[in-house]
Amino acid sequence: MTLLEIRNLKVYYYTRRGVVKAVDDVSISLDRGEMVGLVGESGSGKSTLGLSIIRVLPHQAKVVSGSIVFEGIDLLKLSEKEMRKIRGKEISMVFQDPLTSLDPLQKIGDQLIETVLEHERNLSRKEACEIAKKTLQDVGIPSERMDNYPHQLSGGQRQRVMIALATILKPKLIIADEPTTALDVIVQDRIMDLLASLKKELKVTVLLITHDLALAAEKSDKIAVMYAGHLYEYGASKDIVSKPLHPYTQGLIDSIPDVFVKKEIREIKGHPPDLVNPPKGCRFHPRCPLRMDVCSVKEPPIVNVDGRLVRCWLYAQ
User: Fold this and answer.
1) Is 206 contained in some domain?
2) Residue 288 within a domain
3) Burial 149-186 (b: 16+ CB within 10 A, else e)
4) DSSP 30-50
5) CB neighbourhood size of 124 (10 A)
6) pLDDT in tens, the chain (317 residues)
7) What is the CATH number of the domain that holds 82?
8) Are 102 and 183 in contact (CB under 8 A)?
């Protein structure tokens, strides 16, 4: 059953250089209880899409058109007061840098307790404290660390606190924006296992935003590939990894080293386009090894290929 449905979403940044089309006509749906990996290079629009869902975009960004429907309600039509009731309780977000996201002057226990009391006004502080202790223990942090400040924790522990904050109200959707950035591989694996176990135990839907396709392929049920503000491929992880359809997805997979298989690692030549003035036609065509004449003239439509969505002229003709 569908939990979140984004349709024809356009989010632009209005800057001195011009209008940056960060998310440009993106449609995607997330089912209940699944993990979807949203992958792509830096600047592809992944984080902007995540911020749009909970409506915490920077002041220069604007949702130009489209809809974000959560459990039958278009979030873009809600007032800020109505949105505050959903943000944190129904939909939560784990941000990239926990050190800047956590209040450095407040103990982590107090931050957890205040999050509970903000949404559950009928609870006492003592009851909220017990919930905070249990939530910390659930993410592998002893309740004694309630009195610690963020700077007294390691990077992995701070990220676990962010996940505790995101799950303490048992939301239906968690948006995890690069949750393993700057962590060593062992801690990365633990954080991802934690997210996977929370998905299984709490039946939550997870949108995993990452530039690491290998990580998304290992942990996600589905993968959505973004490039230059467009969604280029979306389908089951196993299908995308075993048989990528879009040349950009193929390039991402070819650039991933594999310690178990001897393979040639190939880079995607060129650079992502300037989204103030993106190339005409398919935005990937200047870097695409399979480009055709039509690719530089007309933007390709999204087509369904055996249950997978692909934006490419190779399949649209």
Assistant:
1) yes
2) no
3) ebeebebbbbbbbbbbbbbbbebbbbbbbbbbeebeee
4) EETT-EEEEE-STTSSHHHHH
5) 10
6) 899 999 999 999 999 999 999 999 999 999 999 999 999 998 899 999 999 999 999 999 999 999 999 999 999 999 999 999 999 899 999 987 777 789 999 999 999 999 999 888 889 999 999 999 999 988 889 999 999 999 999 888 898 898 889 889 989 999 999 888 767 777 778 788 888 888 888 889 999 999 889 889 988 999 999 999 999 999 999 999 999 999 999 999 988 877 556 667 788 899 999 999 999 999 999 999 999 999 999 999 999 999 999 999 999 87
7) 3.40.50.300
8) no
Q: Centre a 10 Å sphere on the Cβ of residue 211 and count the other Cβ atoms it contains.
A: 16
Q: Which range of residues forms the domain containing residue 189?
A: 2-282+295-311
SS3 assignment, position 242: helix
